[in-house]
Amino acid sequence: MSARIAHIWRHPIKAHGAEAIAGARLSAGQGLPFDRHWAVAHEASDADGSEWVNCANFNRGAKAPALMAIRARLDEESGEITLTHPDRPPLTFDPDRDQAAFIQWVRPLIPEGRAAPARLVRARSRAMTDTPFPSISINSLDTLKEMSARAGKPLSPLRWRGNIWLEGLAPWAEFEWVGKRLRIGEAVLEIREPITRCRATSADPETGRIDIDTLALLEESWGHRDFGVYGVVVEPGRIAAGDAIEVL
To answer: Taking the complete model, does pTM exceed 0.85, yes or no?
Structure first.
């Protein structure tokens, strides 16, 4: 089987829910549309969405693992987002208008002693990615299979909060692309760097509870804490599940 896109995921609210999509049109110098389009600024942050700021300004799974079990669905026409979580009732709200409802819903998922959620901010220039450049994360299901075998249990792709998941590769082949360009569907991305992972990946995305030390597994098995790579769109175009990829 030739390498191809297996899945595409976006995260409308940074660290607060994943959503599978069939495809998207990528623009040069921008992230995946509606990915990390909003973020949850905590009470110790002055982030307002006017510019990119470090992820430490926002509530995230590394500090609140229960957030990892949120699923999201964005209705692009109405602008409403529906969130679900095993420990919370479903919530449908407009992230630009119904902030109070969202803050009330999400607050119980933040551990005591952690900065509480204060407000939702909308990215006004570019996605609130974990990188100071507008990145799209690219991950390999074949690498994940090897990691799962080493862990002795299946590891869900949702642990890694990735955008594009590929299949049909040799495990860890994606690290060889750093500094190269990759055609994905109609678009071309420049692969910038490996993704160094945080403790959010230790949480089971079905329950939001920590069940495995993924960072120790990476370190002990491969001598690093990297999984996946960051790419930047240099040529626009549409991508969709099933599209072939090509290293240029």
So the answer is: yes
